[in-house]
């Protein structure tokens, strides 16, 4: 249990450092929702459940498994399984695509209120590659049923 809490704290601090470095002290504001030219959209190719296969770059991921489900209404649920068998941490938020970036805003969880802005490196039917501040995440589509019991 102690290891699980320390792992979550490390992951939370890592994300905070990434976000502060990437976007300074900016946050999601009302003008992000409607941008000139209709550049904000819910990209249907992202809708579904994705498994984090690996990350590259600085830092280390301490979760054995991590999944995220992107819903067509612009919300998401992220499920992280710790080293403790059967223990899961769930956070939720809103997502969208804007000007070549994949944007996630956490509304429930340890980092409530934080906005993450990832560059979209590649997107295929069953694979996504995102990057933020020199850290790259590789995701692969999986059946929705993989995390259903945790949502």
Determine Rg (CA atoms, Å).
15 Å
| End-to-end CA span | 22 Å
Q: What is the total tally of β strands?
A: 9
Instruction: List the helices and strands in order.
Output: HHEEEEEEEEE
Give a quick set of tags describing it.
151 residues; alpha+beta; 2 helices; 9 strands; 44% strand; disordered N terminus
What can you tell me about this protein's structure?
Helices cover 17% and strands 44% of the residues. The chain has helices at residues 2-23, 30-33; strands at residues 40-41, 48-56, 65-70, 75-81, 88-98, 101-108, 115-123, 127-132, 135-142. An eight-stranded antiparallel β-barrel has the order 2-3-4-5-6-7-8-9. It is globular, with a radius of gyration of 15 Å.
Helix-strand blueprint:
Elements: H1 2-23, H2 30-33, E1 40-41, E2 48-56, E3 65-70, E4 75-81, E5 88-98, E6 101-108, E7 115-123, E8 127-132, E9 135-142
Antiparallel strand pairs: 1-5, 2-3, 2-9, 3-4, 4-5, 5-6, 6-7, 7-8, 8-9
Brief write-up:
The chain is of the alpha+beta class. The chain has helices at 2-23, 30-33; strands spanning 40-41, 48-56, 65-70, 75-81, 88-98, 101-108, 115-123, 127-132, 135-142.
């Amino acid at each position: 249990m102690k290891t699980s809490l320390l792992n979550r704290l490390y992951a939370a601090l890592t994300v905070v450092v990434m976000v502060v470095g990437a976007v300074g002290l900016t946050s999601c504001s009302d003008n992000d929702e409607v941008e000139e030219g209709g550049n904000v959209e819910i990209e249907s190719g992202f809708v579904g459940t994705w498994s984090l296969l690996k990350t590259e770059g600085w830092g280390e991921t301490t979760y054995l498994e991590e999944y995220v489900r992107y819903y067509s209404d612009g919300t998401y649920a992220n499920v992280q399984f710790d080293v403790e068998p059967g223990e899961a941490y769930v956070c939720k938020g809103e997502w969208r695509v804007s000007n070549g970036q994949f944007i996630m805003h956490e509304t429930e969880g340890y980092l409530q209120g934080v906005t993450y802005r990832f560059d979209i490196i590649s997107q295929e039917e069953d694979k996504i590659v995102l990057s933020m501040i020199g850290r790259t995440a590789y995701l692969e589509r999986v059946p929705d049923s993989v995390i259903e019991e945790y949502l």
